[in-house]
Amino acid sequence: MIEIKNADKWYGNFHVLSDCSTSVTKGEVVVVCGPSGSGKSTLIKCVNGLEPIDDGEITVDGIVVTDKNTDLNQLRAKIGMVFQNFELFPHMTALENVKIGQMKVLGRNAKEAHTRAAELLQRVGLKDHAEKFPAQLSGGQQQRVAIARGLAMDPIAMLFDEPTSALDPEMINDVLDVMVELAEEGMTMMVVTHEMGFAQKVADRVIFMDEGHIVEDAPKAEFFGSPRSDRAQLFLSKILSH
Amino acid sequence: MTDFDYGIIWNNLPFLLEGLQVTFLLTILSVVGGIILGTVLALVRIAKIPVASWFAAAYVNFFRSLPLILVIFWLYFLVPLLLGRPVGSFYSVLVAFVLFEAAYYSEIIRAGISSVRSGQIAAGRAIGLTYPQTMRYIVLPQAFKAMVPVLLTQAIILFQDTSLVYVVGLKDFLVSAELIANRDQRLVEMFVFVAIVYFSICFAGSLLARRLQKRLET
Fold first, then answer.
1. Cα angle, residue A174 at apex, residues A172 and A176 outer, rounded to 5°
2. Tally of structural domains, chain B
3. Of A74, A88, A89, which has the smallest distance from its Cβ to B128's Cβ?
4. What pLDDT is stored for residue B8 in this prediction?
5. What's the pTM?
6. What is the predicted pLDDT for the residue at A37?
């Protein structure tokens, strides 16, 4: 479903992605990990064209993201994205946050959008918070609203960019639970995260990145069992030791 | 103070109120027009559209480099000339204020837009909103909320500046007061009154702006 071929990207002289190739099939859950600055966030932002690449090709569901003539808005509507800092719209209630895309992009009427939004908020455990503004919600609650906002577009895949990095420890599980549920329901997911517990639980594959390269791209068991690269071994030992 | 006759104000109140009405109408219409044109200018500048953005920047710099009184004066002659018919001093002055204030409002609005986190634009685009939709539904509402006190302060300045229509003889509050003052030789009383009115309105406006600012900060 997601196909990344030889992606290259520079920020000035900094080679943020170098010759990255991988793919995600329908229903697959792929965790992307690696040290800060390894390019993992950039990689998933390229999937929906939020970041353009300088060379290579990315296709999603047969649509070439990197083609200039592609209607990116139409494509983005089909791919949900969750950000590290939630990025809920602060001037709208939780419910309105989940409604806006449905109404302005999918063209659903207010009633349909409302019903779907209420349904999704209930699903992420926030039925009673629908009328609250983001500032009145905890980080974990905000992130769950953000997930609902993405799901409201009935996406064919969901991208998560470090969804729990900005959260207090006690809230991380609320968000991870929602993500695990999604994964178990068969959602295609690409997740940038350091939560190795999540990876071990639901990932099909793990991609390890370092300095813009995809160093390791292996099934979960293989990755955690015997990572081939020294760099990944070192990373794992550091991240799993405590 | 026994020589002063403040009855002159009371006796001419309807005439003065008519002038004050012109002042208010001019202020309100100029603020609204200035904000609309200013928003367009700010959006064009931020969108980095090749020729248009350069033009918007040039426009802003041009009007910010001219004294307002000159703009009022020029447009008083230019507007009828361009339209090929007389339009009356109110409309020529209104055009001058809108064009002039738009340059200032555009800078305020541009700062307001820049104050919205870039992640908000990414979030809007990520759910499939177009760039204009993202601006309209996500960025501008947040920007305007943050800008209300500054926009109000600018409106107060504009309210004071409307007195410059004096140069083209438009009968606003100040000109109306002056006409009566000269006619009845009651300059002191009338100009004391005018000062009190301008002060009260502007002071109340500043208090309101300060309160709004405080509410935003909490």
1. 65
2. 1
3. A74
4. 80
5. 0.85
6. 86
